[in-house]
Design brief:
The complex is a heterodimer of chains A (about 90) and B (about 375). Chain A is of the alpha+beta class and about 90 residues long. In chain A, about 40% of the residues lie in helices and about 15% in strands. Chain A is built from three helices and five strands. In chain A, strand 2 and strand 3 form a beta hairpin. In chain A, helix 2 packs across helix 3. Chain B has about 375 residues and is α/β, with parallel strands linked by helices. Chain B is about 35% helix and about 15% strand. Chain B contains 16 helices and nine strands. In chain B, helix 6 links the parallel strand 5 and strand 6. In chain B, helix 1 runs parallel beside helix 2. Classes of the chains: A alpha+beta (about 90), B alpha/beta (about 375). The interface between A and B is medium-sized, with 20 and 20 residues.
């Protein structure tokens, strides 16, 4: 699915980031774990039910201003859609 | 061995071998650990800290039935304090909503609830207990408390005819995830194999149903399934390879690379009461025994798939070919494949489900309880 930019993604029950003090950041979920690097961590940290998809895209475009904005938008929509299909995200 | 030893990612914690159910396909060994030998909550807390230091991210609490431990709340609290993700793999009893709320309050992340079928009749036949109604109640509580819920249907010849009903029940409950796990043949399941193993026709029909459910439910419920490896061309990379990703601790503290390895002859198992977990993982004889490729028979060592399936499963090689260091007989290249083919020939000859009747109950070997 492609997420609606006005919706607010929130991590689904049982899906959470490990603690900041740990050496690498990981999205923990039932029976799996996803290692997060720069942009994916920025995205997942904002999936807390307060930011809209559009706001997350704008934030990441600002943080990665050297990257092509349209490509960033497309990548984020795909990434959020994939997390949703894995039942790691709900949209509110 | 010169290769770098990888970090384990998951710890399977068998808290007890006691269980109110008697499932005919239980993955516990036939020789169960007595209650008096179970580790204390305090020792488990130390083990969780050592596991986290070793790189473990998730702990799966299982048994037996982990809810049979009166100190489970304490145990889950300490796993979370160590920074681990806490999953409970449970039959859903003994439990009431108040106790579930306590488990959630200390940080339970994920509740995996097992089912023996879509109805009470299969629950009674395959677990020797009347527990289906309780499971439905538990599923409702777990959802109400906003914890991840996985339904786990164990499927086999005796309940595949209910598969569509199991999917309908799943849609009604609407968990985040559902697992349809074909029985794997170890422990009690190996003892009951002749009555559990489906025919190829039954297996293929079940896979079609599951694939279409997976497609239809995408985005709503994550559907996953495990196929019985006897039907495969190549063996499964058991546990992701011996001593590579997962470790298991028995109720008494013995550390194993998998659920079944205590059946293997000559395994010098070490115990967390005697040595830190990190040392047991990295240099104990049991974990080194089948790690990497050096131990492999020529056939596996020179095979292109050696880093894909790691020679398959040691316990299966022992159970089927009486040689733990042989190529997994499931492998179509294995000299032992004939053993599997003979078993399949018998299973394929008949595609009927055994009748769910009191008369047939006498033929099952039900899982016992430890002293």
């Amino acid at each position: 699915m492609t997420p609606d930019p006005s919706k607010r993604p929130r991590l689904a029950p049982g899906c959470r980031l490990n603690e900041k003090s740990q050496p690498s950041r990981v999205l923990l979920m039932p029976e799996r774990a996803l290692r997060l690097n720069g942009p994916s961590l920025e995205i997942v940290e904002r999936c807390d039910g307060t930011h809209t998809v559009g706001e997350i895209i704008a934030d990441v475009q600002r943080l990665y201003s050297k990257a092509e904005p349209q490509k960033v938008e497309q990548d984020i929509l795909e990434y959020l859609g994939r997390l949703h299909d894995q039942r790691a995200l709900d949209f509110e | 061995m010169n290769a770098v030893i990888p970090n384990p990612l998951a710890l399977i914690a068998e808290l007890t071998h006691r269980c109110p159910l008697h499932c005919v396909y239980c993955s516990n060994p036939l020789e169960l650990t007595a209650r008096g030998r179970e580790l204390s909550a305090e020792t488990w807390a130390r083990v969780f800290r050592e596991a986290a230091e070793l790189g473990v991210l998730q702990v799966d609490f299982t048994g037996g039935e982990p809810l049979a431990r009166p100190d489970l709340v304490e145990i889950i609290r300490s796993a979370r304090a160590a920074g681990l993700y806490a999953s409970l793999i449970s039959s859903g009893l003994p439990l009431d909503e108040k106790r579930l709320a306590e488990l959630v309050a200390v940080g339970l992340d994920h509740f995996q609830l097992s089912f023996q079928g879509a109805e009470q009749n299969t629950a009674r036949e395959f677990s020797g207990s009347n527990t289906h109604a309780q499971k439905l109640r538990v599923a409702g509580w777990v959802k109400r408390h906003h914890v991840a819920l996985t339904l786990n249907f164990v499927v086999h010849r005796g309940n595949l005819h209910q598969l569509e009903d199991m999917i309908a029940l799943t849609e009604k409950i609407e968990p985040g995830r559902v697992e349809f796990a074909h029985v794997q043949y170890y422990g009690w399941a190996f003892a009951n194999r002749a009555r559990l193993l489906p025919s190829r026709a039954q297996l293929e029909e079940s896979l079609e149903i599951l694939k279409s459910a997976e497609e239809r439910l995408r985005g709503r419920i994550r559907v996953e399934f495990v196929v019985p490896d006897y039907f495969a061309k190549y063996p499964k990379p058991c546990m992701g390879g011996w001593g590579r990703k997962v470790l298991l601790i028995k109720p008494d503290g013995e550390v194993l690379p998998c659920h079944a390895a205590s059946v293997l002859p000559g395994m010098a198992l070490e115990n967390v009461e005697q040595r830190p977990l990190g040392q047991i993982w990295s240099d104990s004889a049991a974990f080194q025994k089948y790690r990497g490729v050096e131990w492999m028979p020529e056939l596996c060592r020179t095979c292109q798939r050696r880093e894909q399936d790691f020679g398959g499963c040691r316990c299966q090689a022992f159970l089927l070919a009486q040689d733990a260091a042989a190529t997994d007989p499931v492998c179509s290249l294995s000299p032992g494949r004939k053993i599997v083919d003979d078993i399949l020939r018998e299973a394929n000859a008949d595609s009927s489900a055994p009748a769910l009747e009191a008369a047939s109950v006498r033929d099952w070997i039900y899982r016992a309880n430890p002293s």
